[in-house]
Amino acid sequence: MGSGGEVSRIAFPILLGMVPDSVISLIAMITASRIGTEALAGTGLASYLFMIINAVTSVFMVGLLVITSQAYGGNDLRLIERAFGETLTASVISSLAVVATSPLWLPIYTSLLSGGQELVNEVAVTYLSLRVFSIPALMLNSVIATLFRAVEKPWPPTYSSISIGVASSVLIPSLALGYLGLPRLGVSGMGLASTISQYVGLLVYVFLRPPVKVGFYTPSKITAKILAVGVPASAERFVGSAGHNIYINAVARSGVEALAAHNIGLSVENLIIGPVFAVNVAASAKTGHHVGSNNIGDLDRVVKEALKIGVVWMFIATLILVGLSPFVGKFFTDDREVAELVMVYLIMAAISEIGLGASQALYGVFRGAGSTWVPLAISSTTILIFRAALAQILQPIYGIYSVWFTQITDMYSRFLISYLIYVKLKSRLLVKVI
């Protein structure tokens, strides 16, 4: 565990596993654009709901990653097995609860998010009422992937992600637009296709050997530990989701063209920046290994490698996004105003990316060290003040351009605060949780 390139060895397969997610978003966006502008805007709102779903998932996923990576560093396979089994049980129960209650909260949620645009709201409800059934598979996929990555077996989750990507690439346009002899179901077909694809990815694990014995265990003190570590990370995502929902409300109030352009730009941006989140997970796992084995002398090297990978990739991402910005909008829409707005969005997003890359690398180290409360504190400050609140204040005065500018203020304040905390409080950030 002490050799060079330890972060990149885990990050590379995770990176490949994230590419299908970006491809799916791209295909879904192209498909929705063939249905209409309202479909493009309405289905795009689903990404903000799934930010909240990911926040729920992270309460288990982050806690499991930290505990199992530290247990792996300490060679405690029994703890890994028990933690995994208890997390499986908790994830199944919570995901089924979300699905069962969705008819109660889903229409209210989409109405609030759509900014009073009735046609967009109708599309969002139709799409999400079917896609919500993917949540149990999504959560189980996330838990299983976390186990494999924590024990330095990052390739099986990549195979699962590729399977989801292939299934989605075929089913989303086919069920929505009536290809391959299938009925043309519009946005309902998109939601159904996304759900089926998640279960295809889950089935892949049947053919892959798990690193420990698989079983559903009754929650115990280990679950309490997982929650204690994971709740701050989940709270961070909830705060992030709340901030992004306030932010997207400011976008929606700028008009349907601005919302459509935002969804196009965001999908393209996500295709380019995905690898930085692989660095985050890899940095968490490797930091956990060092803490679990009481080998913290090499932690600075992990930080330097993670920062280098994050910053270099995001610098490349910046150049790519700026280069693509004049052409992307014209490819996805015939609406000239939307195409021009896409260009503006991508340029502003590109400027923010290096700040995102550096902060995500440091966030990974904080979490692997057991200090999951640190990213919560930082993100709560930056996204609520420097993005959400600022967007709401500026939008009535300066319009959509000022809303998108808050990406830059959010990301660079996030990096600056993260770096200062690591430099000043490094020894106090190490928390052994096993």
Question: How would you explain this protein's 3D organization?
Answer:
The protein is an all-alpha fold and 434 residues long. Helix content is 83%, strand content 0%. The protein has 15 helices and no strands. α1 runs antiparallel to α10 and α14 runs antiparallel to α15 (400-425).
Number of strands: 0
| Apparent shape | globular
Helix content: over 70%
Note the total helix count: 15
Largest β-sheet summary? none
Distance between the termini: 19 Å
Class inferred from helices and paired strands: mainly alpha
Order of H and E elements: HHHHHHHHHHHHHHH
Q: Return the domain count.
A: 1
List unreliable stretches of 5+ residues.
Answer: none
The oligomerization state is single chain
Give the overall average pLDDT: 89
| Beta content | under 5%
Radius of gyration: 21 Å
Short synopsis of the structure:
The protein has 434 residues and is mainly alpha-helical.
Keywords:
434 residues; mainly alpha; 15 helices; globular
Topology diagram in text:
Layout lengths: L5 H30 L1 H8 L1 H28 L3 H37 L4 H14 L3 H16 L4 H23 L8 H19 L16 H32 L3 H18 L1 H18 L6 H34 L3 H33 L4 H26 L1 H26 L9
Helix pairs in contact: 1-2, 1-7, 1-10, 1-11, 1-12, 2-5, 2-10, 3-4, 3-6, 3-9, 3-11, 4-5, 4-6, 4-9, 5-8, 6-7, 6-8, 7-8, 9-14, 10-12, 10-13, 11-12, 11-13, 12-13, 13-15, 14-15
